[in-house]
């Protein structure tokens, strides 16, 4: 006779699921409301989504306080893993989403935001990303990855322009390829170790002393390609600029930040032990990829004529910077990764917010694309305040002190120096100098050139609304006064990263 | 009284600049002049309450910013930085006061006030990261000044200026991070405070690498010979006020940083690189002097002569003794006054004729006698005539280096003669002879506003040329402590012998007291 399965509900620790369930419930509620009464305004859905994200944020905060007292918590048949990395990543994911989502309440109305599904998908995506970071199991990571990616494809396509469809299809096919690589990689690791949990894989591999190094390398190569596609590392980056161009500026800014942090955490979990257990091949390849990503994307950014494409390449370059932190793999560098990403979020939120504010429906004469450099020329005469704010974000992205991103760069380069990666530190420094050129180029257009003839400055703020303006205001304040936030952030992040064993 | 006067000096112009956005356009110039005058008065007050006999840092303030990483807001001032701060305040004041009518005066004045904040900040910062913040931040206002108000090639010139300096200083930043890491290894605490770093003795090969990293950052700013190509463009395209501030203050950041960082942190490396750098400095003096002789444009002549004199400053610094370093600091001030004045003078004639080509002029002495007199005085000072301000600095710098190498000093001295040739020939072309160009016949002489800026500069030029003591004494005290620190810290025999020991006698008396 079969023994009845007997597991106490308490040992499942279902509370670990709570933060992810909040956005799922929110999404279902939004769909339900739409079924009951159609034709409701987007402001309702934005407000509801934000409220759910607030609850979500608080749930993550409470798991943070659990972490401080009890350390890492496992749950749901040890599928869930709530450690410091998971909490930090979730805080960034949910926190950044709270700022990015309201950008849809802009002056002009666009197709995607008038459908309630947009917000439901958005919340599903958040839940997917949260699952991705809060687990050790390759399968649950896969589920989270695909949930969020499928939602993102649709969100991009909903912008309803030719370029958006192109972008969505491109992203979808690349994403499918990456998913294929990912499942192959997981399969190899499962075949080697009989487990899909990263820490199990690590201990089994260590126990037999990496006997099947050939297969480990095959698995690593597949994983590297999969993540390379997902975070857009050179040479897997080719989709990124097109996707950014096709999506709305608000969505592009979101893509440059939120999904990436989730992926970084997964990469950190998987690659950290591989690098540290002497898989030299991975270290060398990762080194090359990091340097290529930083340098080449900077070179390509130099020749762009569209600000949004330039920012796309710049985001790739910043992702390369952060991958360097994973390559270095010390507590300081992993701390630097989160610090860098938080400060980068504040700046990029502002930069893409400004682009979103200047979104127009018809192009001017002499303007080659949606956000061409010419559109911003002479902005200091027509919109002095907007010009200064945009200039501020560019300087911050270039890493000019004392603005936000400088402190991230400082700490990251310092971690390279401390770990003995001198050449890498110099490469990072020189890349910041190269990057200076294209950020300055926009400043040159804004401050030193004459405006286009029919440009009276109204298009720069054409899509503005109180909400958009206040979000940009938040980003501005965050960028200028970042120095006062760095000290507490550093302490907080260091404690969380260190206590998770990274 | 006024314990936090340094913070006030840094942030007063910035706050005033932010308020400047509210000021009505026509009142802006008056507002700018008053703010800059208050700032100058504050800097004079600083000088007045400065204790000239003390050699260490004064008016120190310390607020931790990022404690875990050892970054603090530390400011302080000694004899080395005091006069450059006063000079910065002074030049901003007369720069704004003599500002000719340009478009967007309001933006210009706000930018200048922001620039002033960064200039003062660089010279009083005693934390490497704080120093770096102001150092980098100073690029932005200058980028805007050159790029928005400059000549036809302004955008190329401003971007080149920005990128050169930005790239150089990022290498320096890596050096700073290494320095902080070594300090962490030695003591277990992160610190970016320069005074903490001064206590750290590094092995020689570390010193060499770090010296090079810092050198790249500073050399671009000075600018030293192979890195100087941005400067002629920047000067050539910048509006008068931009050139004045650039030559008078911004270039001094590089030479000041050599004294503040390179020498006391890496005394052995400084000795090791003394001759290579001296040779670069001499190439810089001779080569740029020759280039200056070939120029058609009076502003380029002044620009190249300014680079040439920066070479003498570098030479004085790398004499590594009290005379040389004191002389080079004095020469920084002298060079600031004189080349600032020369750029103002070039601006005067440019405002009238909108050309800077020397061939367009000739015989100006009879049309504009007052202008010719002041120009002549400043030119003599620039050439280094005795009883003018430059002479004191050049003489001391060269005496200092004479103790290290006779031949090189002689070469450098020859170069000063070349300086006299190009300056005098330029003066001849512009001022003597008949008035050949019709347009020059009715040029008005200096206006009151221009005299207001130029007369104080002339007075300083002669006053400090005849009686340099009030400035030299505080500089000397602080330099002595730097040189002593270098001697104490140096580990190689070469460095011990090159860098003089100043307290030899005191050490002996102390031991004899203990013996009693």
Provide a descriptive summary of the structure in words.
The complex is a heterodimer of chains A (502) and B (516). Chain A has one domain (15-360, 369-499). Chain A is 74% helix and 1% strand. Chain A has 20 helices and 2 strands. A two-stranded antiparallel ribbon of chain A has the order 1-2. In chain A, a hairpin with a 4-residue loop joins strand 1 (73-75) and strand 2. Chain B is mostly helical. Chain B has a domain at 273-467. Chain B is built from 23 helices and 2 strands. Chain B has helices at residues 5-20, 28-49, 79-97, 105-124, 128-137, 139-149, 154-187, 194-198, 204-221, 230-237, 240-265, 267-272, 274-293, 298-317, 322-353, 364-367, 369-383, 389-402, 406-431, 448-466, 469-489, 493-498, 504-515; strands spanning 58-66, 71-77. Chain B has a two-stranded antiparallel ribbon. Chain B is globular, with a radius of gyration of 22 Å. Mean pLDDT of chain B is 89; it is low at 506-516. The interface between A and B is medium-sized, with 36 and 34 residues.
- Major sheet description of chain A: 2 strands, antiparallel
Strand content of chain B: under 5%
Biggest beta sheet attributes of chain B: 2 strands, antiparallel
Show unreliable segments of chain B: 506-516
Number of helices of chain B: 23
Provide the spatial order of strands within the biggest beta sheet of chain A. Answer: 1-2
């Amino acid at each position: 006779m079969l023994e009845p399965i007997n597991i106490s509900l308490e040992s499942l620790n279902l509370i670990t699921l709570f933060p992810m369930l909040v956005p799922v419930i929110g999404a279902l509620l939004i769909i339900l409301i739409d079924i009951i009464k159609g034709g409701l305004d987007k402001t309702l859905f934005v407000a509801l989504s934000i409220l759910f994200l607030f609850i979500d944020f608080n749930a993550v905060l409470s798991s943070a306080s659990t972490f401080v007292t009890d350390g890492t918590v496992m749950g749901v048949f040890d599928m869930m893993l709530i450690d410091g990395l998971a909490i930090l990543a979730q805080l960034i994911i949910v926190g950044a989403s709270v700022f990015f989502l309201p950008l849809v309440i802009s002056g002009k109305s666009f197709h995607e935001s008038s459908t309630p599904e947009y917000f439901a998908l958005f919340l599903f995506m958040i839940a997917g990303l949260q699952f991705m970071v809060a687990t050790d199991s390759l399968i649950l990571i896969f589920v989270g990855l695909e949930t969020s990616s499928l939602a993102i494809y649709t969100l991009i396509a909903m912008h309803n322009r030719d370029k958006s469809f192109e972008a969505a299809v491109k992203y979808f096919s690349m994403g499918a390829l990456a998913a294929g690589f990912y499942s192959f990689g997981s399969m190899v690791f499962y075949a080697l170790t009989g487990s899909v949990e990263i820490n199990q894989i690590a201990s089994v591999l260590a126990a037999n002393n990496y006997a099947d190094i050939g297969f480990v390398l095959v698995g690593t190569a597949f994983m590297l390609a999969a993540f390379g596609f997902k975070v857009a590392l050179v040479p897997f980056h080719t989709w990124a600029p097109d996707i950014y161009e096709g999506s709305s500026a608000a969505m592009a800014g979101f893509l440059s930040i939120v999904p990436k942090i989730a992926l970084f955490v997964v990469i950190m979990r998987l690659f950290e032990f591989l690098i540290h257990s002497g898989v030299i091949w991975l270290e060398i390849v990762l080194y090359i990829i990091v340097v290529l990503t930083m340098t080449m994307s900077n070179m390509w950014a130099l020749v762009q004529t569209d600000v949004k494409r330039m920012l796309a390449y710049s985001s790739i370059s910043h992702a390369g910077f952060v991958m360097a932190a994973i390559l270095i793999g010390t507590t300081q560098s992993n701390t630097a990764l989160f610090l860098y990403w938080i400060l980068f979020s504040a700046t990029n939120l502002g930069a893409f917010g400004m682009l979103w504010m200047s979104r127009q429906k018809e192009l001017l004469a002499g303007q080659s694309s949606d956000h061409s450099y010419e559109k911003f020329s002479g902005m200091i005469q027509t919109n002095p305040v907007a010009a200064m704010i945009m200039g501020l974000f560019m300087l911050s992205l270039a890493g000019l002190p004392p603005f936000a991103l400088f402190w991230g760069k400082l700490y990251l380069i310092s971690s390279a120096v401390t770990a003995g990666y001198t050449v890498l530190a110099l490469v990072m420094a020189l890349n910041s100098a190269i990057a200076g050129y294209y950020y300055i180029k926009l400043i040159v257009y804004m401050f030193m050139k004459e405006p286009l003839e029919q440009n009276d400055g109204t298009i720069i703020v054409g899509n503005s609304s109180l909400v958009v303006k206040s979000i940009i205001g938040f980003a501005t304040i965050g960028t200028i006064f970042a120095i006062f936030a760095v000290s507490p952030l550093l302490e907080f992040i260091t404690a969380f990263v260190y206590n998770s064993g990274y | 009284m006024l314990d936090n006067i340094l913070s006030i000096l840094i942030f007063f112009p910035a706050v005033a600049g932010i308020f400047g956005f509210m000021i009505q356009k026509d009142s802006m110039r008056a507002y700018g002049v008053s703010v800059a005058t208050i700032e100058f008065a504050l800097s004079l007050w600083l000088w007045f309450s400065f204790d000239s006999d003390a050699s260490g840092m004064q008016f120190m303030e310390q607020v931790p910013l990022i404690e875990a990483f050892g970054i603090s807001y530390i400011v302080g001032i000694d004899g080395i930085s005091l006069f450059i701060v006063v000079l910065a305040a002074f030049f901003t004041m007369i720069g704004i006061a003599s500002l000719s009518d340009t478009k967007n005066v309001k933006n210009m004045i706000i930018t200048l006030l922001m620039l002033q904040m960064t200039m003062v900040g660089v010279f009083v910062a005693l934390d490497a990261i704080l120093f770096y913040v102001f150092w980098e931040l100073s690029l932005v206002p200058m980028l805007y000044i050159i790029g928005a108000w400059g000549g036809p090639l302004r955008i190329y010139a401003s971007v080149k200026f920005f990128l050169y300096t930005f790239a150089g200083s990022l290498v320096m930043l890596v050096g700073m991070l290494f320095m902080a890491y070594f300090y962490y290894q030695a003591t277990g605490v992160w610190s970016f405070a320069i005074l903490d770093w001064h206590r750290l003795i590094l092995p020689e090969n570390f010193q060499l690498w770090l010296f090079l990293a810092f050198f790249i950052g500073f050399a671009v700013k000075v600018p030293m010979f192979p890195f100087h190509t941005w400067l002629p463009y920047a000067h050539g395209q910048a509006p008068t006020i931009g050139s004045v501030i650039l030559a008078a203050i911004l270039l001094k950041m590089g030479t000041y940083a050599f004294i503040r960082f390179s020498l006391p942190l890496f005394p052995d490396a400084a000795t090791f690189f003394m001759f290579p750098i001296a040779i670069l400095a001499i190439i810089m003096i001779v080569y740029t002097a020759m280039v200056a002789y070939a120029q058609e444009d009076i502003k380029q002549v002044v620009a190249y002569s300014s680079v040439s004199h920066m070479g003498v400053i570098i030479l004085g610094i790398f004499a590594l003794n009290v005379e040389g370093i004191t002389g080079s600091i004095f020469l920084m001030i002298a060079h600031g006054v004189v080349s600032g004045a020369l750029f103002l003078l070039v601006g005067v004639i440019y405002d009238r004729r909108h050309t800077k080509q020397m061939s367009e002029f000739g015989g100006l002495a009879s049309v504009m006698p007052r202008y010719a007199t002041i120009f002549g005085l400043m030119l003599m000072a620039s050439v280094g005539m005795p009883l003018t301000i430059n002479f004191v600095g050049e003489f001391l710098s060269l005496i200092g280096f004479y103790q290290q190498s006779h031949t090189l000093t002689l070469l450098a001295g020859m170069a000063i003669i070349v300086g006299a040739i190009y300056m005098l020939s330029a003066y001849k072309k512009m001022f003597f002879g008949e008035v050949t160009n019709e347009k020059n016949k009715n040029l008005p002489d200096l206006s009151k506003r221009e005299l207001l800026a130029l007369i104080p500069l002339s007075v300083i030029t002669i006053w400090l040329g005849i009686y340099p003591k009030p400035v030299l004494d505080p500089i000397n005290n602080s330099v002595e402590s730097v040189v002593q620190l270098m001697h104490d810290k140096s580990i190689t025999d070469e460095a011990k012998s090159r860098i003089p020991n100043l307290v030899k006698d005191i050490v002996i008396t102390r031991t004899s007291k203990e013996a009693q």
